[in-house]
Specification:
This protein is an alpha/beta fold. It is built from 14 helices and seven strands. The strands form two sheets. It has a five-stranded parallel beta sheet with strand order 2-1-3-4-5, with helices on both faces. A two-stranded antiparallel sheet has the order 6-7. The longest helix is centred in the middle third of the chain and has 19 residues. The chain starts with 7 loop residues before the first helix and ends in an 11-residue tail after the last helix.
Length: 292
């Protein structure tokens, strides 16, 4: 069994008795301080436990990984949904200092968008667009920090299609009341990132059980909403302190909206032509250059 298919902590514990002294130092630190180790470079981790950077790199190979970056990704995947808000703040302080925060955060977001482009399946993306265009009713669900993404997506799809429903609920019972009529002619788009929402997981499970087409927008194939997806769209959303970085998910959602509009471009022209008339007649927008 390779390293990717096993729980990393279990793997470390299994190998621990046979590891060298230096590797045991790294292993024990990872087990005890996983929240910090996940965001350390090989150099920083080695410095912290008192070994060389090369020893840290060899530790990754010892566990069956191609290199330290692959081990670090596995550790991040394992711990991201376990971290409390306080742990997130502490961990972030190790890789985002107090200097040049603007440059550091924007640079990290640029990298997340690049990785999202590399990792998102074009086949799943196109399937998701087909599903949206052909659905009788489109349900959109996202809670907590993902609620902003769900609201944004609902607003623009609502301009393109007649029957778009943003599922907003305070309780689980309200959630099911709002989606109880979902069926095989419908689509549901679930958006969830660590820490994953149980409500979103339950909504997609219910929708799948009732034959609806499920689109999941999340960060990993191991995400709890991924298992219910007919179309899985992955976007990088690594944390920045206690704040979730939603730049890459938002970019992916923008692409989804534009692709859906391109499939129905004549109707889009007609819709926005009518909207412009309404906006003009009812003086919706401020006119540039006029006296206030």
């Amino acid at each position: 069994m390779n390293a990717e298919s096993k729980d990393l902590f279990k793997l470390i514990n299994e190998r621990l008795p046979s590891l060298s002294k230096g590797h045991k130092l790294i292993a024990n630190y990872m087990l005890e301080h996983y929240d910090k180790a996940a965001f350390m470079t090989a150099h920083k981790l080695g410095e912290t436990v008192g070994v060389s950077e090369s020893t840290t790199v060899r530790f990754a190979s010892e566990l069956g990984y191609e290199g330290y970056p692959e081990l670090q990704r596995a550790l991040k995947e394992l711990v991201r949904n376990k971290l409390t808000a306080v742990q997130r703040i502490e961990a972030a302080s190790d890789f985002i200092g107090s200097d040049n925060v603007l440059e550091q955060v924007l640079s990290l977001d640029i990298e997340r968008i690049r990785k999202t482009l590399e990792e998102t399946s074009e086949e799943d993306f196109n399937r998701a667009v087909d599903t949206i265009v052909s659905a009788q009713t489109i349900y959109i669900v996202g809670t907590r920090s993902a609620a902003s993404l769900a609201s944004f997506l609902s607003y623009y799809l609502g301009l393109l299609f007649a029957n778009v429903k943003l599922v907003v609920s305070a309780t689980t019972s309200e959630l099911f009341e709002r989606i109880m009529r979902i069926n095989e002619k419908d689509a549901i788009i679930g958006i969830s990132f660590p820490r994953y929402s149980k409500q979103t997981v339950q909504a997609l499970r219910y929708a799948r059980d009732n034959g609806a087409n499920v689109i999941a927008i999340t960060d990993s194939m191991t995400s709890p909403i991924a298992r219910y997806a007919d179309s899985l769209l992955l976007a990088r959303s690594d944390m920045a302190s206690f704040v979730d970085s939603l730049v890459a998910p938002m970019s992916l959602i923008n692409a989804l909206i534009i692709a859906a509009s391109n499939r129905n471009i004549d109707a889009v022209y007609e819709t926005f032509g009518r909207l412009e008339e309404v906006w003009e007649e009812y003086d919706v927008y401020e006119k540039n250059g006029e006296d206030i």
